[in-house]
Amino acid sequence: MSIADKFQLRHTLLLGAAACAVIFVSSIFIGTETLDLGKAWHELSSGTPLNEAPTLSVLLRHRIPRTLAAFIAGAGLALAGCAFQALLRNPLATPYTLGVASAGALGAWVAFLLADITATIPLLNLLTSKQVMAFLFASADVYIVYLLAARRIHTSPAVLLLAGVTLGMLANAGIMFSRYIARPDRLVNMDRWLMGGVDVLGYRPVLVLAAGVIPCAIVLLLQAARYDQFAFGTTMAAGRGVNIARLQITTFLVGSLITAIIVSEVGPIGFVGLIIPHAVRLATGPQHRIVMPVSIVAGGAFLCACDIVARRILPGETPIGIITTMIGGPVFLYLLVKRKFSDWQM
């Protein structure tokens, strides 16, 4: 990379970081009702009890947790998509195309159906039944995909992708069947959850997301150099000391765990893991040591921006999964038509 290219990259990263920071802060103060920062500060400095300070209460109990949840979920989905694409060397590989997200959603959906039973299991006091079931189903999806695709030493990326798509369709069929047998009074809540949403209340969901996503993100970021070697092919990567089997297992397990945790808390939210890594590569180039951390920030900011659209521009509180699909679908089609996959063989 020439000095001019490095300067251009640094300039792009600074502009992108500034834009993401603006979106993050805007997400806190822009909503159905725009918050008055001066009023919130007055309520804080005057020592008004939180229950008697409406602006400060909305800020601390609703807006900040909601923005943090959106940022962490977007960051995790973008990073998981980036890791899957790097491992499979396929631009269509995401937690959704591999069936991980659908399987996790099916697990959470089953937890809805078994709510009366799982609520009485003491071991589930630490984790919600949705989180446990989402992780179990997502892990099962990854395990089955891996078994189907494993061929002695080498694992076929194409077979992995096809197996994932098939299992994802089976999981979606399972969701439709469980909707069919669900009690009508629960069906509304289940359908609303399936559309995705970051309208969390309080900090417990944020802490769950952070506790699950951050350690997994660190593990995936540590694989960045290996993904760069993997881009030259499995044979050359193995020749340069990359343990292919360990990298595959680590990526699938950690990527599925991130996806399961996010799906269990905010529902299935599509397209973040698909379009964000591609958009970042266009700006930074293909090196995963740069693409992965930038995707984290860009993915978080993207979901915050989608949440602003959901709250402020569209009527009511439009589910964020609808927004990401409405934005991500056309963007991805544009990239596909323009062949903007500079580092992939399409």
Structure keywords:
single chain; 346 residues; 2 strands; 1% strand; globular
Summarize the structure in words:
By secondary structure, this protein is mostly helical. It is built from 15 helices and two strands. The protein has a two-stranded antiparallel sheet with strand order 1-2. The chain is globular, with a radius of gyration of 21 Å. It starts with a helix and ends in a 9-residue tail after the last helix. Mean pLDDT is 82; it is low at 120-124.
Name the beta content range. under 5%
Helix share, percent: over 70%
Largest sheet: 2 strands, antiparallel
Structural class estimated from helices and strands: mainly alpha
Please state how the strands of the largest beta sheet are arranged side by side: 1-2
Radius of gyration: 21 Å
Globular, elongated, flat, extended or rod-shaped: what is the shape? globular
* Overall average pLDDT: 82
Give the SSE string. HHHHHHEEHHHHHHHHH
How many helical elements? 15
Poorly predicted tracts of residues: 120-124
Termini separation:
25 Å
Number of strands: 2
What's the topology here?
Elements: H1 3-29, H2 37-45, H3 54-88, H4 100-113, H5 115-118, H6 129-149, E1 150-151, E2 154-155, H7 157-181, H8 184-194, H9 204-221, H10 224-230, H11 234-239, H12 244-266, H13 272-284, H14 288-313, H15 320-337
Antiparallel strand pairs: 1-2
Helix pairs in contact: 1-3, 1-14, 2-3, 3-9, 3-12, 3-13, 3-14, 4-6, 4-7, 4-12, 6-7, 6-12, 9-12, 13-14, 13-15
